[in-house]
Design a protein that fits this description.
The complex is a heterodimer of chains A (316) and B (308).
Chain A: H1 3-24, E1 29-40, E2 49-60, E3 64-69, H2 75-82, E4 90-95, E5 98-99, H3 107-114, E6 117-120, H4 133-143, H5 148-161, H6 177-190, E7 195-199, H7 207-222, E8 227-231, H8 235-238, E9 243-248, E10 251-256, H9 258-261, H10 265-270, H11 277-287, H12 299-312
Parallel strand pairs in A: 3-8, 3-9, 6-7, 7-8
Antiparallel strand pairs in A: 1-2, 1-4, 4-5, 9-10
Helix pairs in contact in A: 4-5, 4-6, 5-6, 6-7, 11-12
Chain B: H1 2-5, E1 20-31, E2 39-50, E3 54-59, H2 65-70, E4 80-85, E5 88-89, H3 97-103, E6 104-107, H4 120-130, H5 135-149, H6 165-177, E7 183-187, H7 195-212, E8 215-219, H8 223-229, E9 232-237, E10 240-245, H9 247-251, H10 254-259, H11 266-276, H12 288-298
Parallel strand pairs in B: 3-8, 3-9, 6-7, 7-8
Antiparallel strand pairs in B: 1-2, 1-4, 4-5, 9-10
Helix pairs in contact in B: 4-5, 4-6, 5-6
The chains are: A alpha/beta (316), B alpha/beta (308).
Chain lengths: 316, 308
């Protein structure tokens, strides 16, 4: 084994340890935003648009956060700030301990900080760069200058995580939308991103494709300890997260566990959002005088909650 | 009068022939003909589209639904079979496709990428102008199209490229609506929109159909939306039509849907779970309000009339 190979191996080991250790420690903040704001100046001629107004929040390493909000609520701008494509106009943004808004931070520091955060976009056809699946997944690590043998291992691992190993040598153009998105996710995993931001990554997929991608997202958070920030318009997807942030008019208007957020159905409707169909049914039954909880999101849990309440009301 | 000619009026709705606005007769379309990856995108499809209704087409990615609807205005021509609009084979030499395209308005997927003109106004006016309408009538059409799409009139003088994504989508839809098509065909009109915007655009399509009797064909991946807004549902699987029925019938056949790579709405699954627990409100539950109403009726509760 060559020296570089050894070095790479040690590097790999370190990375893995780092992730598990910080997870064990209960999760340090991988992202910390303090009063960040962002305004699009519209190139001078247009009116200015204040997309984000003094947002403060932090994201713990290993957590799964869903961000909801109507079109124009500022959620995509927030995503661009978090992956450092845009820089906040004001406030302080720290990614993995690096203050990307400080004047003392160098280009290199930001470059290093960027290595921690990956992004998966909406359109499956816009983010595949190679013709063969495994080459596409290897593209990122290759550009990081990683040893070929290590790349090989990372690509295989990443494809396993998203359940696409058997398509490794397939032509990427002939995959379904859901499969393409999973290849894109594998690409970010192979780059050892510790935090992945999904910007409506299931919006263009059919029901099966959506389920495949959601399964992969849940798995890489739960089993691999990767921090997930997911922007979505689908309430059933958001209910899988351990935290839901609701944005409206460039501000955070709600922040809590799905069970705390979705029970506030009226407020969500006012923000142009929806609740999962299960919650809406429970909400309607409650309006009809049945004593049901609102936070049974799963279909079975919802049915059981209704059965219990009917029993209690001596209807069955 | 161009307007009267281009619209389904109650007077010309006589006899069986007029029950259907469009028909596919044994239509087949093959992609990559003659090479290794030859695929039958549409395979011997026979399908009739009812006049004055909203027909939803659902199917997994690659099931052929987008290909099928692009044949409705001759954008894609089948390799074999016939496509009929108002009982007229649009592929026959005597039929002018241009005229068909005035009749059949097609809003493609992500139409915001199709804007091209200098101003939003001229972009919307493009169709009506090609129809040879008077300037006065064009102006009226531009305004009614913009109004339908919820596009603020102050944006009409702007360049389409200065609009936000949502505004561009509205401008593109306005352009098709300005032609006042007799058959409106939409491919994923609500994709990428937030829940309120989805409800707005789908609700407007439903109201428009109610007001004018326009026939609508729409494709979507959202089982919930299709269940809520469509009168008929056509299910496609691997290039073939495998179901063509009412929403309760289609969403009540979960096994067929699953084998077509689809899903049932979340609320339908709740109905299955309730049934397992001995609370039987049927398996043909496809909207939340309907499920709540059925439960209330069965157990003597007073249902809330509110709708969202």
């Amino acid at each position: 084994m060559s020296n570089t190979n050894k070095a790479n191996e040690a590097y790999e080991k370190n990375e893995k340890n780092e992730i598990t250790e910080s997870k064990k420690a209960g999760g340090a903040d991988i992202i910390k935003a303090e009063n960040i704001s962002f305004t699009y100046d519209g190139g001078g001629s247009e009116e200015k648009v204040e997309a984000l107004k003094n947002i403060s929040f932090s994201v713990k390493e290993g957590s799964f956060t869903a961000i909801l909000g109507r079109n124009g609520s500022g959620k995509s701008t927030l995503a661009k700030l978090l992956c450092m494509v845009l820089t906040p106009d004001g406030g302080r943004l720290t990614v993995d301990g690096v203050d990307v808004t400080s004047d003392e931070t160098t280009e290199e520091d930001i470059y290093e900080a960027r290595k921690n955060v990956g992004m998966v976009f909406q359109n499956p056809d816009n983010q595949i760069v190679a013709t063969i699946v495994e080459e596409d997944v290897a593209f990122g690590p290759e550009n990081l200058g990683i040893e070929p043998a290590v790349i090989r291992r990372r690509v295989d691992e990443a494809l396993d995580i998203v359940g696409m190993r058997k398509y490794a040598r397939h032509s990427a153009s002939r995959l379904s939308g859901g499969q393409k998105q999973r290849v894109a996710i594998a690409g970010t995993i192979a780059m050892r991103r510790r935090c992945i931001i999904f910007d409506e990554s299931t919006a263009m997929l059919d029901p099966i494709g959506r389920r495949e991608v959601m399964d992969s997202i849940v798995r890489l958070n739960r089993d691999e300890g990767i921090t997930v920030i997911m922007i979505t318009h689908y309430m059933d997807e958001a209910s899988l997260a351990d935290r839901v942030i609701v944005m409206d008019g460039g501000e955070i208007v709600m922040d809590g566990a799905p069970s705390e957020i979705f029970v506030r159905a009226e407020e969500l409707w006012q923000c142009g959002l929806d609740v999962p169909q299960t919650t809406e049914l429970l909400w309607r039954m409650r309006k009809a005088g049945l004593d049901v909880p609102l936070d049974a999101f799963g279909e079975r849990e919802c049915a059981e909650a209704i059965e219990k309440a009917l029993e209690k009301a001596a209807k069955i | 009068m161009v307007r009267a000619e281009g619209r389904a009026t109650p007077e010309n709705k006589n006899g069986n022939e007029n029950e259907y606005i469009a028909e596919f007769r044994d239509v087949t379309f093959v992609y990559n003909k003659g090479v290794t990856y030859e695929t039958k995108a549409v395979d011997s499809v026979n399908l009739k589209i009812r006049r004055g209704l909203i027909t939803g087409i659902i199917g997994a990615t690659g099931s052929g639904k987008s290909t099928l609807i692009q044949m409705l205005n001759g954008l894609i021509k089948p390799d074999s079979g016939e496509v009929l609009i108002d009982s007229e084979n649009i592929l026959s030499k005597d039929v002018k496709l241009k005229k068909i395209r005035f009749k059949v308005g097609l809003v493609m997927q992500y139409p915001e990428y199709q804007l091209f003109d200098e101003t939003v106004e001229s972009d919307i006016a493009f169709g009506p102008r090609n129809m040879g309408l008077s300037e006065e009538e064009i102006k009226r059409r531009v305004e009614s199209g913009a109004r339908f799409a919820g596009l603020d009139f102050s944006l009409l003088k702007k360049s389409p490229f200065d609009l936000s994504g949502g505004q561009k989508r509205r401008a593109a839809i306005a352009g098709v609506m300005a032609m006042e098509p007799e058959l409106l065909v939409l491919d994923e009109p609500a994709a990428g929109l937030d829940p309120a915007a989805r409800r707005e655009i789908l609700g407007k399509i439903r109201d428009y159909r109610k007001e004018r009797g326009t026939s609508v064909v729409m494709v979507s991946h959202s089982m919930e939306d299709m269940a809520r807004y469509c009168d008929r549902i056509v299910v496609m699987n691997q290039g073939r039509v495998c179901m063509d029925d009412t929403p309760p019938k289609v969403f009540g056949s979960s096994e067929e849907l699953f084998s077509a790579g689809l899903d049932v709405p979340g609320i339908t699954k709740v109905a299955y779970e309730l049934q397992k627990l001995g609370i039987d409100i049927g398996r043909d539950i496809y909207t939340v309000k309907y499920a709540a109403d059925m439960l209330c009726e069965k157990y003597g509760l007073k249902a809330s009339a509110e709708n969202f």
